[in-house]
Write a structure and sequence with these properties.
Blueprint lengths: L2 H11 L3 H14 L5 H25 L1 H8 L10 H51 L4 H7 L7 H13 L5 H6 L1 H4 L3 H16 L3 H25 L1 H35 L5 H8 L10 H28 L2 H4 L3 H24 L1
Helix pairs in contact: 1-3, 2-3, 2-5, 3-5, 5-6, 5-11, 10-11, 12-14, 12-16, 14-16
Protein name: Type II secretion system F family protein
Membrane topology: Multi-pass membrane protein
Keywords: Cell membrane, Membrane, Transmembrane, Transmembrane helix
């Protein structure tokens, strides 16, 4: 055993058994070859690397953070020691979240691909049964490369069924390796039909038709909600950066006017400059930093909202958040450039 594999093995054995069991379920549903304990060990090691990177980033930027927090009146100060500690904790959590979400997206992607081809697979199985094949032979002959993960799992269970295990027992294990409610219900319904001696081909054809209608209804629902998704995208990518840019440039303009009118007397300033006579408590640079924080938060919320509307799962929308944040930053910079040019003329 290679040294790195031996290290991972020893590290994985130190993890709680309940945690390893849950990881085994998720890894199996994701279609990975490694076991859950090994995946956990790899995740912990990579998260530690994220923690080291986070500690380094905050170590070299603690002075900037202190300057940024001063206008907020926050008494907490980032020393070099606290920067390393906070950066390590944040880096570890970010790395852990990133790797866990990657596994979650893999599971959901596998589920979606299986559910898309499941109706066609059932029709093919039903056709083979009507041609005189047994259920075992019909499933085995229906595996096609275009069915992807579903064909791989069916091929695996049919191979196991050639041994001591019955076809019904190993077929029920397919739903345990693919996280799909439609697949689980279809397998359970099929096994009940086999035990009761029903018309299996007709049942499979009816199930395929029902699944296809359900998929069409979901597509229609997603199509009807695209307007809300477009609206959220417009607010996030166009409206919010524009409002942030207006705020920053307005404060910059007021600051420049106050600087130019500094020679005015207090009485003259109060009559000619009006509200411009008072000193601003915030600076344009501070407001710009706040804008970046707000844009980041809006990107997260917009991604979650899109996930709920589009697919009914908030976490699936988080994958859109980085792109939304990048586009909003670009729109913010372009808006500031345009506004600065307009106000300088």
């Amino acid at each position: 055993m290679p040294r790195e594999n031996a290290l991972l093995y020893r590290l994985s054995r130190t993890l709680p058994q309940s945690l390893r069991d849950k990881a085994n379920i998720y890894v199996r549903e994701a279609g990975l070859e490694e076991d859950g304990a090994t995946w956990l060990a790899n995740t912990i090691i990579l998260s530690i690397l994220f923690a080291i990177a986070g500690a380094g980033v905050l170590y070299f930027s603690h002075e900037f953070l202190n300057e940024w927090m001063t206008p907020l009146g926050i008494g907490f100060a980032f020393t070099r020691e606290t920067s390393i500690s906070v950066g390590a904790i944040l880096g570890f959590l970010v790395g852990l979240a990133f790797l866990t979400l990657s596994l979650y997206y893999r599971i959901e992607s596998r589920r979606k691909k299986v559910e898309d081809v499941l109706p066609d697979f059932l029709l093919l199985v039903a056709g083979n049964i009507r041609a005189g094949m047994t259920s075992f032979s019909a499933f085995k002959s229906s595996t096609r490369p275009e069915f992807g993960a579903l064909s791989d799992e069916i091929r695996t269970v049919t191979t196991r069924a050639l041994g001591t295990e019955s076809f019904g027992n190993v077929l029920s294990g397919v739903s345990a390796r693919i996280k799909s409610k439609s697949l689980s219900e279809t397998v359970r319904f099929f096994l009940q039909a086999v035990r009761s001696g029903g018309k299996i081909a007709q049942i499979l054809e009816s199930t395929s038709a029902d699944l296809r209608r359900t998929q069409d209804l979901k597509k229609e629902l997603v199509s009807n909600t695209k307007t809300y998704v477009i609206f959220v995208g417009f607010v996030m990518v166009i409206a919010t950066p524009l409002l942030m840019a207006v705020s920053v440039e307005f404060v910059s303009l007021i600051t420049r006017i106050q600087t130019q009118n500094a020679f005015l007397t207090e009485s003259a300033a109060s009559t000619s400059a009006g509200f411009l006579g008072g000193k601003l408590s915030i600076s344009p640079s501070f407001l710009e930093s706040i804008a970046y924080v707000l844009l980041f938060g809006n990107a997260l919320l917009a991604g979650i909202f899109m996930g709920v509307i589009g697919e009914g799962k908030p976490l699936l929308g988080l994958r859109y958040s980085p792109l939304l944040f990048i586009v909003s930053i670009i729109a913010f910079g372009v808006s500031r450039t345009v506004l600065a040019g307009m106000l300088s003329t």
